Predict the structure.
Amino acid sequence: MFTQNPQTVGMPEGTYVFDLRTCNRRLAFNRFFWNMIRPEARQAFWDDEEAAMRAAGLDEEEMALVRARDWLGIVQAGVNFFVLEKWARVVRKTNLEVYAIMRGESFEEFMQTRAVPHAR
Amino acid sequence: MARIIGGIGTSHVPTIGVAYDKGRQEDPVWAPLFEGYKPVAKWLAEKQPDVLLFFYNDHATTLFFDLYPTFALGVGERFPIADEGAGLRGLPDIRGDVDFQAHIGEALVNEEFDLAFFQNKPIDHGIASPLPLLWPHEPDWPGTVVPIAINVLQYPLPTARRCYRLGQAVRRAVESYPEDLKVVVVGTGGLSHQIHGERTGFNNTEWDLDFLETLRDDPERLTQLTHADYVRLGGAESVEQIMWLAMRGALGASLEEMHRNYYLMTTTAMTVVTYEERETAAAAQQREQEAA
């Protein structure tokens, strides 16, 4: 019988729990991003994104999210942010830039909400 | 006998490592962070621990989700610092003491903490972000590291209470080692931050400061919180603070907070705190007075 894990009851909105079921559903997608810790995987992505995605076994929905650079959509689909940030380095995005996108704000708008807005 | 001479809680924000490598220590934006670590580095230089025992988390770098352990202890004389997508950092490999690591592992398993073990693996910013701010590395690190990785990424996570008890068991493990090693326990991560989803950018300084007070004086209270409580109060990734509880569990009941630095620059409340056990602090003061 399905039992809700009490650890995750009452999670606030805008938060996506990465659990065993999510991981099971999106293991290949997570592995695609995790692979970016290896220089040869980064090079393969730079050389031919489409081929790299096919080789990783991504489905059509996942490939569309990557093509669209849909950071929030990728998280919502079930990718853990800590593998996603490895790919951010590959496509030359800083974490702060990714944070702004996930909030639906421009980079400048986002930084104005920070304690040290000119920090980089 | 090996013994614990103090504890450190520290954030492990990866951009600390980037700023360090780019030499931004004097940059006005970053100076409040780097200045805040100087007293910690000085304290370590004076105390000269042989070992830093880290409770940290891997960020799906060393370990991937096809086999993701709840607790994992690293064994090895050397651990390279990981490439996390941006290349290598030019720091020497982290040093290890295999006999001591193996002893800690054996003692913990015999206390029914059934850890996984990794060997010959790189270690990511969970340790490598703060390490060069704590210890010098030229020509090499002055001591060895025991890495104990805790799963804070894939639910179910170990409970706050389990982490606290792991710390208590680590203390017994350290104190059952015959060699006279001086050990500082370090918990990394936090404090408040959320870096995924629409709630990205959440912080809560009031809670952060409350957490630090409670951690020092009444840590059992923090073991009663659920992960969702930590997420609600401090943001999704602040659940890393259960690793501070593991560090706290390895320390005695009464603590002196020797130093604290709290700097919320952009998205993570970057924090470092050092603790000594109160008896130790009093004894140190007495020694200083006698010497004067």
Q: What stands out?
A: Chain A has a mean pLDDT of 96.
